[in-house]
Amino acid sequence: MFETLDTLPPDPILGVTAAFRRDTSPLKVDLGVGVYRDESGNTPVPAAVRAAEQGMLGTQTSKSYVGPAGNVEFNERIVALALGPLAPTLADRTATIQTVGGCGALRLGAELVKVSRPGTVVHVSDPTWANHEPLIGSSGLRLERYPYLDATRRDVDFDAMLGYVERLPAASLVLLHACCHNPTGADLTPAQWAALGDVIVQRGLVPFVDLAYQGFGDDLETDAIGLRVLAERVPELLLAVSCSKNFGLYRERTGALAVITTNAAARAATATHQARLARRMYSMPPDHGAAIVARLLADATLRQQWQAEVGSMVARMKGLRALLATRLSARLPAHDFGWLTRQRGMFSLLGLTESGIARLRDEDHVYVPPDGRMNVAGISDANVDYVADAVARLLA
Ligand code: LMR
Q: Which end of the chain has fewer surrounding CB within 10 Å, N or C?
Protein backbone atom coordinates (compact mmCIF):
# COMPACT_ATOMS: atom_id res chain seq x y z
CA MET A 1 0.00 0.00 0.00
CA PHE A 2 2.61 2.54 1.00
CA GLU A 3 5.70 1.47 -0.93
CA THR A 4 5.12 4.04 -3.64
CA LEU A 5 4.99 7.02 -1.29
CA ASP A 6 7.79 9.58 -1.64
CA THR A 7 9.35 11.06 1.47
CA LEU A 8 8.18 14.64 1.68
CA PRO A 9 10.36 17.64 2.50
CA PRO A 10 9.88 19.07 6.01
CA ASP A 11 7.05 21.55 6.65
CA PRO A 12 8.42 25.09 6.12
CA ILE A 13 7.57 26.17 9.66
CA LEU A 14 7.33 23.00 11.76
CA GLY A 15 10.48 21.67 10.07
CA VAL A 16 12.40 24.61 11.54
CA THR A 17 11.32 23.57 15.05
CA ALA A 18 12.53 20.02 14.38
CA ALA A 19 15.89 21.28 13.03
CA PHE A 20 16.28 23.60 16.01
CA ARG A 21 15.67 20.72 18.43
CA ARG A 22 18.37 18.65 16.70
CA ASP A 23 20.96 21.44 16.98
CA THR A 24 23.15 20.83 20.04
CA SER A 25 24.84 24.26 20.05
CA PRO A 26 24.37 26.24 23.28
CA LEU A 27 24.19 29.39 21.12
CA LYS A 28 21.07 28.35 19.21
CA VAL A 29 18.12 30.75 18.92
CA ASP A 30 14.64 29.75 17.70
CA LEU A 31 12.94 32.55 15.77
CA GLY A 32 10.81 30.04 13.85
CA VAL A 33 7.34 28.80 14.75
CA GLY A 34 4.86 31.46 15.88
CA VAL A 35 4.52 30.82 19.58
CA TYR A 36 4.85 33.51 22.23
CA ARG A 37 7.85 33.15 24.51
CA ASP A 38 8.75 34.87 27.76
CA GLU A 39 12.23 36.12 28.68
CA SER A 40 13.28 32.57 29.60
CA GLY A 41 12.06 31.16 26.31
CA ASN A 42 8.99 29.47 27.82
CA THR A 43 5.50 29.58 26.34
CA PRO A 44 3.39 30.05 29.48
CA VAL A 45 -0.24 29.21 30.05
CA PRO A 46 -1.75 32.57 31.12
CA ALA A 47 -2.72 32.45 34.82
CA ALA A 48 -6.34 33.38 34.01
CA VAL A 49 -6.52 30.50 31.53
CA ARG A 50 -5.07 28.13 34.10
CA ALA A 51 -7.63 29.32 36.68
CA ALA A 52 -10.50 28.87 34.20
CA GLU A 53 -9.18 25.40 33.40
CA GLN A 54 -9.07 24.40 37.07
CA GLY A 55 -12.58 25.77 37.61
CA MET A 56 -13.82 23.88 34.59
CA LEU A 57 -12.24 20.60 35.70
CA GLY A 58 -13.74 21.03 39.16
CA THR A 59 -17.27 21.30 37.84
CA GLN A 60 -17.22 19.02 34.79
CA THR A 61 -19.40 16.00 35.45
CA SER A 62 -19.26 14.21 32.10
CA LYS A 63 -17.10 13.76 29.06
CA SER A 64 -19.97 12.61 26.88
CA TYR A 65 -20.15 13.96 23.31
CA VAL A 66 -20.93 17.63 22.79
CA GLY A 67 -21.82 17.53 19.07
CA PRO A 68 -20.33 18.60 15.72
CA ALA A 69 -20.86 22.34 16.37
CA GLY A 70 -18.96 22.06 19.65
CA ASN A 71 -19.52 24.21 22.72
CA VAL A 72 -22.38 26.63 22.02
CA GLU A 73 -21.37 29.09 24.78
CA PHE A 74 -17.82 29.13 23.45
CA ASN A 75 -19.11 29.82 19.94
CA GLU A 76 -21.23 32.75 21.11
CA ARG A 77 -18.57 34.26 23.34
CA ILE A 78 -15.66 33.95 20.94
CA VAL A 79 -17.70 35.60 18.17
CA ALA A 80 -18.71 38.35 20.61
CA LEU A 81 -15.03 38.89 21.44
CA ALA A 82 -14.22 39.21 17.74
CA LEU A 83 -17.21 41.23 16.55
CA GLY A 84 -17.71 43.30 19.73
CA PRO A 85 -20.81 45.50 19.62
CA LEU A 86 -21.74 44.12 16.18
CA ALA A 87 -22.19 40.56 17.46
CA PRO A 88 -25.80 40.94 18.72
CA THR A 89 -26.93 42.76 15.57
CA LEU A 90 -25.43 40.04 13.36
CA ALA A 91 -26.43 37.08 15.56
CA ASP A 92 -29.41 35.97 13.47
CA ARG A 93 -27.22 35.94 10.34
CA THR A 94 -24.14 34.26 11.86
CA ALA A 95 -23.59 30.49 11.83
CA THR A 96 -20.71 29.48 14.10
CA ILE A 97 -19.03 26.13 14.59
CA GLN A 98 -16.22 25.29 16.99
CA THR A 99 -13.23 24.02 15.03
CA VAL A 100 -9.94 22.20 15.45
CA GLY A 101 -7.93 25.38 15.97
CA GLY A 102 -7.76 28.24 13.49
CA CYS A 103 -6.43 25.81 10.88
CA GLY A 104 -9.61 23.75 11.21
CA ALA A 105 -11.66 26.90 10.71
CA LEU A 106 -9.78 27.83 7.55
CA ARG A 107 -10.17 24.35 6.11
CA LEU A 108 -13.81 23.98 7.09
CA GLY A 109 -14.55 27.41 5.62
CA ALA A 110 -12.91 26.40 2.36
CA GLU A 111 -14.88 23.13 2.32
CA LEU A 112 -18.10 25.06 2.91
CA VAL A 113 -17.38 27.40 0.01
CA LYS A 114 -16.53 24.37 -2.13
CA VAL A 115 -19.96 22.87 -1.38
CA SER A 116 -21.74 26.14 -2.00
CA ARG A 117 -19.82 27.41 -5.06
CA PRO A 118 -17.28 24.84 -6.25
CA GLY A 119 -15.63 27.14 -8.81
CA THR A 120 -14.73 29.86 -6.31
CA VAL A 121 -11.21 31.27 -6.54
CA VAL A 122 -9.56 32.29 -3.25
CA HIS A 123 -7.24 35.27 -3.38
CA VAL A 124 -4.50 35.34 -0.74
CA SER A 125 -1.90 37.98 0.01
CA ASP A 126 1.56 37.72 -1.50
CA PRO A 127 3.20 36.71 0.77
CA THR A 128 0.96 34.88 3.20
CA TRP A 129 1.31 32.35 6.02
CA ALA A 130 3.04 29.25 4.67
CA ASN A 131 0.11 26.98 5.56
CA HIS A 132 -2.69 29.07 4.04
CA GLU A 133 -2.28 27.72 0.54
CA PRO A 134 -1.94 24.02 1.55
CA LEU A 135 -4.86 24.24 4.01
CA ILE A 136 -7.28 26.04 1.74
CA GLY A 137 -6.01 24.57 -1.51
CA SER A 138 -6.51 21.01 -0.22
CA SER A 139 -10.25 21.64 -0.37
CA GLY A 140 -9.89 21.78 -4.15
CA LEU A 141 -10.52 25.52 -4.43
CA ARG A 142 -8.12 27.38 -6.71
CA LEU A 143 -5.85 30.03 -5.19
CA GLU A 144 -4.41 33.22 -6.63
CA ARG A 145 -2.21 35.84 -4.99
CA TYR A 146 -2.86 39.55 -4.63
CA PRO A 147 -0.02 42.06 -4.23
CA TYR A 148 0.41 43.01 -0.59
CA LEU A 149 3.86 44.05 0.52
CA ASP A 150 5.93 46.96 -0.72
CA ALA A 151 9.30 45.39 0.03
CA THR A 152 11.13 48.74 -0.05
CA ARG A 153 8.86 50.57 2.37
CA ARG A 154 8.17 47.31 4.23
CA ASP A 155 4.55 48.37 4.43
CA VAL A 156 1.33 47.39 2.72
CA ASP A 157 1.25 48.35 -0.96
CA PHE A 158 -2.37 49.32 -0.61
CA ASP A 159 -2.78 50.88 -4.06
CA ALA A 160 -1.59 47.68 -5.72
CA MET A 161 -3.76 45.55 -3.43
CA LEU A 162 -6.87 47.63 -4.00
CA GLY A 163 -6.22 47.83 -7.76
CA TYR A 164 -6.15 44.02 -7.86
CA VAL A 165 -9.27 43.59 -5.72
CA GLU A 166 -11.16 46.14 -7.86
CA ARG A 167 -10.73 43.87 -10.87
CA LEU A 168 -11.90 40.63 -9.25
CA PRO A 169 -15.01 38.93 -10.58
CA ALA A 170 -18.07 38.83 -8.32
CA ALA A 171 -18.19 36.05 -5.68
CA SER A 172 -14.40 35.76 -5.48
CA LEU A 173 -13.15 35.01 -1.97
CA VAL A 174 -10.50 37.36 -0.53
CA LEU A 175 -8.48 35.99 2.38
CA LEU A 176 -7.43 38.75 4.77
CA HIS A 177 -5.34 38.74 7.95
CA ALA A 178 -7.36 40.70 10.53
CA CYS A 179 -4.20 41.93 12.30
CA CYS A 180 -0.54 41.04 12.84
CA HIS A 181 -0.13 39.95 9.21
CA ASN A 182 1.77 36.68 9.00
CA PRO A 183 4.60 36.82 7.86
CA THR A 184 5.07 40.56 7.20
CA GLY A 185 3.76 42.30 10.35
CA ALA A 186 2.35 44.99 8.02
CA ASP A 187 -1.37 45.71 8.58
CA LEU A 188 -4.00 47.88 6.90
CA THR A 189 -5.03 51.14 8.58
CA PRO A 190 -8.70 51.58 9.58
CA ALA A 191 -9.17 53.92 6.57
CA GLN A 192 -7.72 51.27 4.27
CA TRP A 193 -10.03 48.63 5.73
CA ALA A 194 -12.99 50.92 5.03
CA ALA A 195 -11.87 51.54 1.43
CA LEU A 196 -11.33 47.81 0.94
CA GLY A 197 -14.76 47.09 2.44
CA ASP A 198 -16.40 49.47 -0.04
CA VAL A 199 -14.73 47.74 -2.98
CA ILE A 200 -15.69 44.33 -1.62
CA VAL A 201 -19.34 45.44 -1.46
CA GLN A 202 -19.28 47.10 -4.92
CA ARG A 203 -17.70 44.05 -6.55
CA GLY A 204 -19.83 41.47 -4.71
CA LEU A 205 -16.78 39.75 -3.22
CA VAL A 206 -16.69 37.68 -0.03
CA PRO A 207 -14.02 38.32 2.63
CA PHE A 208 -12.55 35.38 4.54
CA VAL A 209 -10.93 36.94 7.60
CA ASP A 210 -8.25 35.05 9.51
CA LEU A 211 -8.19 36.30 13.12
CA ALA A 212 -5.33 34.36 14.68
CA TYR A 213 -3.71 37.11 16.75
CA GLN A 214 -6.47 39.21 18.35
CA GLY A 215 -4.81 41.18 21.13
CA PHE A 216 -1.26 40.57 19.90
CA GLY A 217 -0.98 43.73 17.76
CA ASP A 218 -2.19 46.54 20.03
CA ASP A 219 -5.14 45.29 22.10
CA LEU A 220 -8.26 43.16 21.72
CA GLU A 221 -10.42 46.03 20.39
CA THR A 222 -7.92 47.76 18.11
CA ASP A 223 -6.94 44.46 16.51
CA ALA A 224 -10.57 43.75 15.59
CA ILE A 225 -11.23 47.11 13.90
CA GLY A 226 -10.61 45.83 10.35
CA LEU A 227 -12.85 42.81 10.85
CA ARG A 228 -15.62 44.97 12.30
CA VAL A 229 -15.33 47.57 9.54
CA LEU A 230 -15.90 44.75 7.04
CA ALA A 231 -18.59 42.95 9.05
CA GLU A 232 -20.79 46.03 9.25
CA ARG A 233 -20.52 46.67 5.50
CA VAL A 234 -20.60 43.34 3.71
CA PRO A 235 -23.56 40.99 3.29
CA GLU A 236 -21.48 37.83 3.69
CA LEU A 237 -18.20 37.07 5.47
CA LEU A 238 -16.27 34.07 6.75
CA LEU A 239 -14.26 34.42 9.94
CA ALA A 240 -11.65 31.96 11.18
CA VAL A 241 -10.74 32.49 14.85
CA SER A 242 -7.81 30.91 16.65
CA CYS A 243 -7.40 30.77 20.45
CA SER A 244 -3.85 29.40 20.16
CA LYS A 245 -1.90 32.59 20.73
CA ASN A 246 -4.01 34.98 22.78
CA PHE A 247 -5.26 32.25 25.15
CA GLY A 248 -1.99 30.28 24.96
CA LEU A 249 -4.02 27.16 24.09
CA TYR A 250 -1.89 26.07 21.13
CA ARG A 251 -2.02 22.30 21.64
CA GLU A 252 -5.67 22.28 22.70
CA ARG A 253 -6.63 23.13 19.10
CA THR A 254 -9.31 25.67 19.92
CA GLY A 255 -10.91 27.79 17.23
CA ALA A 256 -14.14 28.70 15.48
CA LEU A 257 -15.54 29.33 12.04
CA ALA A 258 -18.22 32.03 11.99
CA VAL A 259 -20.06 32.60 8.73
CA ILE A 260 -22.09 35.78 8.34
CA THR A 261 -24.88 35.10 5.87
CA THR A 262 -27.47 37.36 4.25
CA ASN A 263 -30.46 36.20 6.31
CA ALA A 264 -31.66 33.86 9.05
CA ALA A 265 -32.70 31.12 6.61
CA ALA A 266 -29.23 31.10 5.01
CA ARG A 267 -27.73 31.02 8.51
CA ALA A 268 -29.78 27.95 9.45
CA ALA A 269 -28.86 26.14 6.24
CA THR A 270 -25.19 27.07 6.61
CA ALA A 271 -25.14 25.66 10.14
CA THR A 272 -26.38 22.28 8.84
CA HIS A 273 -23.59 22.20 6.27
CA GLN A 274 -20.95 23.18 8.81
CA ALA A 275 -22.08 20.32 11.05
CA ARG A 276 -22.15 17.81 8.20
CA LEU A 277 -18.69 18.81 6.98
CA ALA A 278 -17.29 18.41 10.49
CA ARG A 279 -19.05 15.08 10.95
CA ARG A 280 -17.59 13.77 7.71
CA MET A 281 -14.04 14.94 8.41
CA TYR A 282 -13.50 14.46 12.16
CA SER A 283 -17.01 14.24 13.65
CA MET A 284 -16.58 16.67 16.55
CA PRO A 285 -14.00 19.12 17.86
CA PRO A 286 -12.12 18.56 21.14
CA ASP A 287 -13.87 20.18 24.11
CA HIS A 288 -11.13 21.03 26.59
CA GLY A 289 -9.85 24.36 25.23
CA ALA A 290 -13.28 25.63 24.23
CA ALA A 291 -14.70 24.86 27.68
CA ILE A 292 -11.84 26.87 29.24
CA VAL A 293 -12.38 29.87 26.96
CA ALA A 294 -16.15 29.80 27.43
CA ARG A 295 -15.67 29.88 31.20
CA LEU A 296 -13.01 32.59 31.14
CA LEU A 297 -14.98 34.93 28.89
CA ALA A 298 -18.07 34.67 31.12
CA ASP A 299 -16.14 35.52 34.29
CA ALA A 300 -15.49 39.26 34.59
CA THR A 301 -12.55 38.85 36.97
CA LEU A 302 -10.78 36.18 34.93
CA ARG A 303 -11.46 38.08 31.75
CA GLN A 304 -9.87 41.24 33.13
CA GLN A 305 -6.89 39.27 34.38
CA TRP A 306 -6.48 37.57 31.00
CA GLN A 307 -6.73 40.88 29.15
CA ALA A 308 -3.96 42.28 31.36
CA GLU A 309 -1.83 39.20 30.66
CA VAL A 310 -2.32 39.56 26.90
CA GLY A 311 -1.44 43.23 27.36
CA SER A 312 1.86 42.37 28.99
CA MET A 313 2.70 39.90 26.20
CA VAL A 314 2.11 42.66 23.63
CA ALA A 315 4.15 45.13 25.64
CA ARG A 316 7.01 42.66 25.72
CA MET A 317 6.85 42.09 21.95
CA LYS A 318 6.75 45.83 21.26
CA GLY A 319 9.68 46.27 23.62
CA LEU A 320 11.63 43.56 21.79
CA ARG A 321 10.92 45.20 18.45
CA ALA A 322 12.30 48.50 19.75
CA LEU A 323 15.28 46.78 21.36
CA LEU A 324 16.24 44.90 18.20
CA ALA A 325 15.79 48.06 16.08
CA THR A 326 18.15 49.94 18.41
CA ARG A 327 20.75 47.18 18.38
CA LEU A 328 20.61 46.80 14.58
CA SER A 329 20.80 50.59 14.07
CA ALA A 330 23.90 50.72 16.28
CA ARG A 331 25.55 48.15 14.03
CA LEU A 332 24.28 49.50 10.70
CA PRO A 333 23.73 53.26 11.18
CA ALA A 334 23.05 53.85 7.47
CA HIS A 335 20.04 51.47 7.55
CA ASP A 336 16.53 52.44 8.62
CA PHE A 337 15.03 49.89 11.01
CA GLY A 338 11.92 51.96 11.78
CA TRP A 339 9.79 49.26 10.13
CA LEU A 340 10.52 46.94 13.03
CA THR A 341 8.58 49.14 15.44
CA ARG A 342 5.88 50.13 12.91
CA GLN A 343 5.00 46.49 12.23
CA ARG A 344 2.71 44.59 14.58
CA GLY A 345 2.48 41.17 16.17
CA MET A 346 4.98 38.38 16.38
CA PHE A 347 6.36 38.48 12.86
CA SER A 348 8.51 40.56 10.55
CA LEU A 349 10.39 39.59 7.42
CA LEU A 350 14.11 40.09 7.84
CA GLY A 351 14.57 40.55 4.09
CA LEU A 352 17.29 37.90 3.85
CA THR A 353 18.27 35.83 0.82
CA GLU A 354 17.98 32.05 0.81
CA SER A 355 21.73 31.74 1.34
CA GLY A 356 21.59 34.32 4.13
CA ILE A 357 18.93 32.25 5.90
CA ALA A 358 21.12 29.13 5.51
CA ARG A 359 24.16 31.01 6.91
CA LEU A 360 22.11 32.24 9.82
CA ARG A 361 21.22 28.62 10.60
CA ASP A 362 24.51 26.88 9.80
CA GLU A 363 27.00 29.47 11.13
CA ASP A 364 25.06 31.25 13.86
CA HIS A 365 22.46 28.60 14.89
CA VAL A 366 19.68 31.17 14.47
CA TYR A 367 16.58 29.51 13.03
CA VAL A 368 13.93 31.18 10.83
CA PRO A 369 11.55 29.66 8.24
CA PRO A 370 12.57 29.68 4.54
CA ASP A 371 10.80 33.02 3.89
CA GLY A 372 13.10 34.74 6.40
CA ARG A 373 10.25 35.47 8.83
CA MET A 374 11.38 36.22 12.35
CA ASN A 375 9.32 35.45 15.45
CA VAL A 376 10.07 38.55 17.50
CA ALA A 377 9.02 36.75 20.70
CA GLY A 378 12.03 34.44 20.33
CA ILE A 379 14.35 37.37 21.11
CA SER A 380 15.35 38.09 24.70
CA ASP A 381 17.67 40.45 26.57
CA ALA A 382 20.10 37.54 26.71
CA ASN A 383 20.25 36.87 22.94
CA VAL A 384 19.43 40.23 21.32
CA ASP A 385 23.06 41.24 20.75
CA TYR A 386 23.92 37.83 19.39
CA VAL A 387 20.95 37.95 16.98
CA ALA A 388 21.70 41.56 15.99
CA ASP A 389 25.33 40.65 15.22
CA ALA A 390 24.27 37.72 13.06
CA VAL A 391 21.57 39.62 11.16
CA ALA A 392 23.72 42.75 10.73
CA ARG A 393 26.49 40.67 9.16
CA LEU A 394 24.03 39.53 6.52
CA LEU A 395 22.45 42.92 5.88
CA ALA A 396 25.74 44.87 5.79
C1 LMR B 1 3.13 30.08 12.65
O2 LMR B 1 2.81 30.79 11.70
O3 LMR B 1 4.30 29.83 12.93
C4 LMR B 1 2.04 29.53 13.54
O5 LMR B 1 0.80 29.91 13.06
C6 LMR B 1 2.16 28.08 13.78
C7 LMR B 1 1.87 27.25 12.57
O8 LMR B 1 1.02 26.36 12.67
O9 LMR B 1 2.49 27.45 11.52
A: N
